[in-house]
Amino acid sequence: MSATPAKDVDEKGAVRSSTKGAKRNREDEAKSWFDRRVKQPADLLYKRYMYFVELVLRRKPLPPSKDGRHIPLRAALERPLLDERRGRSYISNSVVSGRYTIWDFLPKQLWFQCTRLHNFYFLCIGIPQTIPGYIFCGTLR
What we know:
mainly alpha, 43% helix, two-stranded antiparallel ribbon
């Protein structure tokens, strides 16, 4: 008895083998399916995205670092760290948790209050009431 692979003939007369070669063909078909259905559309989408980023937003992709990013672990630095890819200092990690500053509290608060209809109506009625010669709802006795 020999160890030859079993061969099948399909309707079209093609000879199929049921050994590792057929398994490899299925894997190749799966890879080509993956390339057609997933990889190629993803590459196309990425190219369109990069087109938008480069032309509309005028941002250029950064090249990779030569040997990775090295950050010294010193608490106090004399000068800011430079990004070797861009040639400029890194962006600050400072977090501003306040919504208002001293200078923009009143304008922002008025804007936020006036975006609601009932508050806008109250301001339209209430502000003229503070002017002594322009009271139109009556006077206090």
